[in-house]
Write a structure and sequence with these properties.
Distance between the termini: 27 Å
CATH architecture of the largest domain: 3-Layer(aba) Sandwich
CATH topology of the largest domain: Isopropylmalate Dehydrogenase
Strand content: 15-25%
């Protein structure tokens, strides 16, 4: 029986996770998947109340006693340092070794894209999640003086690079995708870039039926706007993957629609919508829950229930087509109403 931790987070995270839970419970019943949901009090409210972000024991329980986490957005203006968000989200990524950050970006409707003459396409992005510039290795000297020096190290290990590159190729092979693209900046970052290029070429030799190419991150940013349909599976380091996946989400409908999965295959998984906590609209019932609901689709796919995942994507298409959506997508429904509409849609889909 999968045990899933629910961490609503802050701001609109609380609202969208509530609707994602409604959809999750509906699908679990329809798929005869016996699950146990546990509610976790992690976020700004707890930090402000108790001065605690997340404890070592809580990390242990999430690691050893849960199979997945569904997380809402973290961030609260009352915590200007965002310390709780760093400790919880980055803590789980690093301490649970969730080295795959998987971001599918699918353009379901051309009118959702800011691009002119856009056609439907899908890009699956694999971002290395535990190394790169986000390790916090570095420091500053003579801080606050005119002579201040700041260093931020880019950490890359062969093990870390190889496993994310292999994850991208394995996905492309299993899904029948024909091309994997490496995104880097090896012309300016020759040491780390050289490691990525070598490992990418070596792993690619094991997948003879898959085309490969490599793009510098600045050229990739331009090309994602110019001809995004050219790309299928993309693999990148932590920083460049962060940038490229946000751009891909924007050209396919915006961050409010985008799901993500942080995974250590065969071990742990964390699912979170890509958008932020948006405190300026929290509590108004206008937050778009589709990103969080699509995370439920990724969760069910992770547990081996592709039919449920397919119904989620079909439901997203149907909600937009009928404008049973929140205001940002041209509809008039509240966050809760979209969640209830989605459950009704799923019930009918399974009964058909």
């Amino acid at each position: 029986m999968p045990r899933i931790a629910l961490i609503p987070g802050d701001g609109i995270g609380i609202e969208v996770v509530r609707e994602a839970r409604r959809v999750l419970e509906c699908l679990a019943a329809r798929e005869s998947l016996d699950i146990e949901l546990t509610d976790w009090d992690l976020g700004a409210e707890r930090f402000l109340r108790d001065g605690v972000t997340i404890t070592d024991e809580e990390f242990r329980v999430l690691d050893e006693e849960h199979d997945a986490v569904l997380l809402g957005a973290l961030g609260d203006p009352r915590v200007p340092t965002n310390q709780h968000a760093k400790d919880i989200l980055l803590g789980m990524r690093f301490r649970l070794d969730l080295y795959v950050n998987y971001r599918p970006s699918t353009l379901l409707f051309p009118e959702l894209s800011p691009l002119r003459d856009a056609k439907p396409f899908r890009i699956d992005i694999f971002r290395e999640n535990t190394e790169g510039e986000y390790t916090g290795i570095g420091g500053s000297f003579k801080t606050g003086t005119p002579d201040e020096i700041a260093l931020e190290e880019n950490v890359a290990t062969r093990k870390g690079v190889e496993r994310i590159v292999r994850a991208a190729f394995d996905f492309a092979h299993k899904q029948g995708r024909s091309r994997v693209t490496l995104v880097d900046k090896s012309n300016a970052m020759r040491h780390v870039g050289g490691l990525w290029r070598r490992v990418f070429a070596e792993v690619a030799e094991e997948y003879s039926g898959i085309e490969t190419d490599a793009m510098y991150v600045d050229a990739m940013a331009m090309d994602l706007v110019r001809r995004p349909e050219r790309y299928e599976v993309v693999v990148a380091g932590n920083l460049f993957g962060d940038i490229v996946s946000d751009l891909a989400a924007e050209v396919t409908g915006g961050l409010g629609m985008a799901p993500s999965a942080n995974v250590h295959p065969g071990k742990n998984a964390l699912f979170e919508p890509v958008h932020g906590s948006a405190p300026d609209i929290a509590g108004q019932g206008v937050a778009n829950p589709l990103g969080a609901i699509r995370c439920v689709g990724l969760l069910f796919e992770h547990f081996g229930h592709p039919t449920a995942a397919r119904h989620i994507e079909d439901g997203v298409r149907a909600s937009f087509a009928s404008r049973d959506t929140t205001q940002d997508l041209g509809g008039t429904l509240t966050t809760e109403e979209v969640g209830r509409w989605f459950v009704d849609y799923l019930e009918k889909a399974y009964s058909a």
